[in-house]
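== Protein entry: sequence and backbone fold ==
=== Local backbone shapes as whole numbers ===
==== Amino acids and backbone structure tokens ====
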Amino acid sequence: MKIFCSGIGGIGLSALARYYKYKGHDVAGSDLHDSDLIQALKKEGIEITIGQTKENISKNIDLFVYTIALPIDHPEFSQVLDLGINHKTYPEALGDVTKEKETIAICGTHGKTTTTAMMYYAMKACGINPTVIVGSLLSGVGTNFIPGDSKYMVVEACEYKRSFLNLHPSHIIITNIDLDHLDYYKDIDDIQNAFEEFASKLPAGGYLVSHSGIGVDPEIRKDEIDLSVWGNHNRSNAELVISLCKKLGFDEMRVRAGLKEFKGTWRRMEYKGRTANGVEVYDDYGHHPRELNATFQGLYEKYPKEKYNLHVFFQPHLYSRTKIFMDEFAESLAIVDFVYVMPIFAAREKHDDSRASQMLVDKINNKGGNAVLLGSKDEIVNIIQDLRGEVIAVNIGAGDAYAELKKIKLL
């Protein structure tokens, strides 16, 4: 079958493209911009076009899979409709895939990527090789798709626009439920209703584990979980993994050993290296105040505040999220030593002429913080290279500023 993936450079759709390639399908795709991930897919034999026009779409395509961010008037999608080609969104296509195995779905507002990866390491240590589709690149593996020969599949289940309702879970972990994606959801009740609807999809005999008291093993002491990654949030995620693994009959000692082997994922408190001036550089995907708090707590756990200065380079993600959580972002960022706020990464939103980044800087400073506004993301390169002393520098945000770190000479 010939499958075309529009938006193939996305972290989720690229994993699905790899799955299709593994299953023997003829896979091609397109994206607006090139990236390291797209280059990796090309090396794996997937034909990718940079630029999206109707000429990319031909009659011999059997299935067109597209990101939910694709606008209805997109030229490729319009051509698909004109030619009558079968088409599915990424969540719909992933839902079909989850029918094929006993699927462990990891969902939650925060931590689902890390928890999905943790589940893989725990199962692998037990001699079980699950098929994995995750929204990041696993450390030590370097991919977001892992083929498995067991009956299990582990997938990251995204709540945005109720995407996870397309999946067919056999077991579910809910890491947490928080206020987010308010460009789609009305309020926290609307979000909770979506998670409840997802949980209701569990079949008889399926397990649900969450910190709301459902399914967490009371014998597990979170403070006694030994991990190679730091932070209270990681120990909380591991607690959920251990609980579900025990319910599935996996050996707890092996599960814990597997979790100890887990070294993290791409852009989740990822260590990038040290500058010539001795500054330790990290990169993180956090784009919600609670995620920032978790990252800072983890960094201060490793680098005590009394000894180190934490310099944060923050690229806000979405105008709507920045405005809605303005006060919360300011509270989170006011606790660190210095903050450099970049222009907002608009992503799926239209450009907004509001001065939201400057407003955030002002609020951080009004709360006792120390923040400045940068004119562009590329300014972080020289700033980080010039820092010296007992300094930890972390780029944080779901935008594209992380690519600038490649320009920094790191040891």
User: Anything to note?
Assistant: The mean pLDDT is 94. The chain has three domains: 2-91, 99-261, 270-407. The longest helix spans residues 232-247.
